[in-house]
Amino acid sequence: MPRNVSYKNFIFLALLIGIILIVMRFTNVGRVQVSPMESAIKDGLAPVQGLLMGVSKNLRNGFDSISSLGKLSEENKALKDEVANLQGQLYLQEELKQENARLKDLLQYQDQFKSNFNFKVAAVIGRDPGNWFGMVTLNQGSKNGIAKNMPVVTSLGLVGRVVAVSPNTSQLMLITDPHSGVGAMVQDSRIPGVLEGITSGGGEARLIHVPKDTDLTEGQAIVTSGIGGTFPKGLPVGRIVGVSNEPTGLFRTATVVPFADLHRLEEVLIITTIYNPEILPATEGD
Amino acid sequence: MRALVLFLLIITALLLQSTVFTYLQVAGVKPDLLLMLVVFNGFLRGSREGAFLGFLAGLAQDIFTGNYIGLNALTKMAAGYLVGLAEARFFKESAILVSLFTMFVGVANQVLYYLLLYYLHVEVSPYYAVIQVIIPSAIYTGLLVPLSYWKFYSSNEEGWLRQRDY
């Protein structure tokens, strides 16, 4: 042991690490309820997160507009000054237009499936600060009727499920989170498998345990199978972009890219009630 | 004053990482702003303070995310300690050097995190872990260092982060 580390410090450090390792185990993602302190912190920071997300969206649109201006023709360059003056208004208009289009999509989706589900629209107000887990904070909580395990979708497809709820916010686990497991199947061949997340950063998931002799090709659509009970059958999930053999040699694995852009989520639909999961209309997801 | 500024920096870094940097992801990853703070502090003040701030910053991140309380506390404490070992050995004015340290410690921090994920029964393929998270996040975080290190360094020497001698 180095001279400058006393036995007292060493014992303190060992105790600290031991306690942390135990606490870690008891604070996993599958907990039934978050503690009152965590709940208070999440709810307290929710308005700040919401505000920062709004500002970030506007900034991104601003950067996009500026970069597109650089590609305009000479004629447009002559109008640059005027454009600069109107830019502020344009950003706002563009933002409203995009928001309108997104909400319209969600509304159409709601109308299409209103005989199957009841929805609640929620806005994304924050994400996990790290790169491993795909946890997203939504601005709807138990006060709005949100409960654990409710599926979350966009008009393009499945996004994930609610894993924790506080009075004003809820935590959404994306299907790319390494904890995530979704009963899924290949839409055309009806081959079932389990769709598990890899890492949030990668933005992909894997359909595992697919028997080796089955037809699995790039481009096939994946939908939920309804097995497990959490997700209703037939929700579009993603498309196969790669197929490989599992090390055991008995199964194959397909890499799946979700239909929904999970890196750019802004509004989502939480399915609060499922009336009849067996009569979902056929859908390709995109 | 120093403690208050560090506390505010931790909260700001957490909020930025969970909001603004969602729109500034490169190769699917966000930079680890908290790790940057821990590296700066450890590099300028040594292992003891590096580990202490690493523990506090990591704990704040764990409480903020609400899962696996202690996971980031432990990994960032180790990162702070590790970078603090270099405190007396290197030229502190070089942002490039700190950038390289941040990348190295970023990899070490994420590798420890990855090992602890196994302890928590979260299995991620090593290939995906390295390619999708460990390498890109370490590089991204390291590349942001030159933009912010000077401010932290000058504040540590002459500003609010300076330790007052009474």
Description:
- The complex is a heterodimer of chains A (286) and B (166).
- Helix content of chain A is 32%, strand content 28%.
- Chain A contains 4 helices and 12 strands, in the order ααααββββββββββββ.
- Chain A is globular.
- Chain B has 166 residues and is an all-alpha fold.
- Chain B has one domain (2-158): Arp2/3 complex 21 kDa subunit ARPC3, CATH 1.10.1760.
- Chain B contains 6 helices and no strands.
- Chain B has helices at 2-18, 33-45, 47-65, 71-84, 95-119, 126-157.
- In chain B, helix 2 (33-45) runs antiparallel to helix 3 (47-65) and helix 2 (33-45) crosses helix 5.
- The two termini of chain B are 14 Å apart.
- In chain B, 51% of the residues are buried.
- The mean pLDDT of chain B is 89.
- At the A-B interface, helix 1, helix 2 and strand 1 of A face helix 1, helix 3, helix 4, helix 5 and helix 6 of B.
Structural class of chain B: mainly alpha
Give the oligomeric state: heterodimer
Summarize the amount of helix of chain B as a percent range: over 70%
Major beta sheet summary of chain B: none
Our measurement of the CA-to-CA distance between the termini of chain B, rounded to an integer number of angstroms, reads 14 Å
CATH topology of chain B: Arp2/3 complex 21 kDa subunit ARPC3
**Whole-number tally of structural domains of chain B:** 1
Q: How much of the residues of chain B is beta strand, in percent?
A: under 5%
What is the 3D shape of chain A? Answer: globular
Judging by the overall fold, what is the CATH architecture of chain B?
Answer: Orthogonal Bundle
Please bin the fraction of helical residues of chain A.
25-40%
Q: Sheet bearing the most strands of chain A, described?
A: 6 strands, antiparallel, barrel
Going by helix content, strand content and strand pairing, the class of chain A is alpha+beta
Most residues in contact: chain pair: A-B, 47 and 46 residues
What does the average pLDDT of chain B come to? 89
Task: Work out the helix count of chain A.
Answer: 4
